[in-house]
Amino acid sequence: MPTIRPRRSVLYMPASNARAIEKARALPCDAVILDLEDAVAPDAKDAARAQAAAAIGEGGFGRREVILRVNGRATPWGEADLAAAAKAGPDAVLVPKVDDAADLEAYDQALADAPAKTRLWAMIETGRAILGLREIAGAAARTRLTTLCVGGQDLGKEMRARHTPDRAPLHAALALTVTAARAYGLAVLDSVYTDIGNAEGLAAECRQGLEFGFDGKTLIHPSQIEAANRAFSPTPEEIAWARKVRDAFAAAEAAGRGALQVEGRMVERLHLAQALEVLDIAEAVAEAAP
């Protein structure tokens, strides 16, 4: 069995759209986020909440993780959203605009009655969150937190940054978020790409996210799933090399050695760890295949 769960493609779906929710049950994404926040108009929030809770209860999403993104605690809908989430018991609850560890702990407390399987995902989309990443990620030890999600649109707006194809203004924030997630054993997801018709731009940003170290990408349209799945899946060449490294260290003559040569390349124990991670990801991806 794989030791990790693939989150290459994590698709936002408006919880107010029953047709979209039904469609999500058959899409090749790794996870679905039923969104009560940005994707739902104020006058539709209550109906969307009830519809999302019903969909979670009905199930039918197969291997896909189901996450419920709630409105912030300070909004008119936040308290009811959190209560409904605790009762419905999705795989995770995604909470917006977490500024610090105290915010995260308050959300965690609001989910005290949720099933044990329900984890906490946090949006990293404010300047204060970037400055408090160590404390936020460190709170995983005492909360349900398992995943950080970058909200690049909101963060860029708060920074008054200009949008550029290479996301240069956000590089520091992206790297710091990945670093904090890895330091505390969390999964970490890249921000959405909003130019839905630009397949080349999406592919480039997926590659960039992979290079930064993200596990996958949050998406806003089903047409983006294939690109994300492709980018965040190990290639056949990467899998073959990882097997060679694993097997070389497993060989009897390699016992106790910290470094050895594989096809003329020097590899160390850190490369073995990387190889095993690639193989875990590949196995998880294979398990997730239709």
* Overall mean confidence score, pLDDT: 94
CATH architecture of the largest domain: Alpha-Beta Barrel
Main β-sheet description: 8 strands, parallel, barrel
Number of helices: 12
Query: How many runs of DSSP E, i.e. beta strands?
Result: 10
Q: Looking at CATH, which topology of the largest domain would you report?
A: TIM Barrel
* Count of the domains: 2
What structural class should be given to the helix and strand makeup?
alpha/beta
Basic shape: globular
Helix fraction bin: 40-55%
Q: From the alpha-carbon coordinates, what is the Rg to the nearest angstrom?
A: 20 Å
CATH superfamily of the largest domain: Phosphoenolpyruvate-binding domains
Strand order of the largest sheet: 1-2-3-4-5-6-7-8
Q: Outline the low-pLDDT stretches.
A: none
CATH C-level class of the largest domain is Alpha Beta
User: Strand share of the residues?
Assistant: 15-25%
Task: Pick out its properties.
single chain; 290 residues; alpha/beta; TIM Barrel; 2 domains; eight-stranded parallel barrel; two-stranded antiparallel sheet; 12 helices; 17% strand; globular
Topology:
Blueprint: E1 9-14, H1 18-24, E2 31-35, H2 45-58, E3 65-69, H3 78-88, E4 92-95, H4 101-110, E5 119-124, H5 127-131, H6 133-138, E6 145-150, H7 152-159, H8 171-183, E7 187-190, H9 199-212, E8 216-219, H10 225-231, H11 236-250, E9 259-262, E10 265-268, H12 269-288
Parallel strand pairs: 1-2, 1-8, 2-3, 3-4, 4-5, 5-6, 6-7, 7-8
Antiparallel strand pairs: 9-10
Helix pairs in contact: 2-3, 11-12
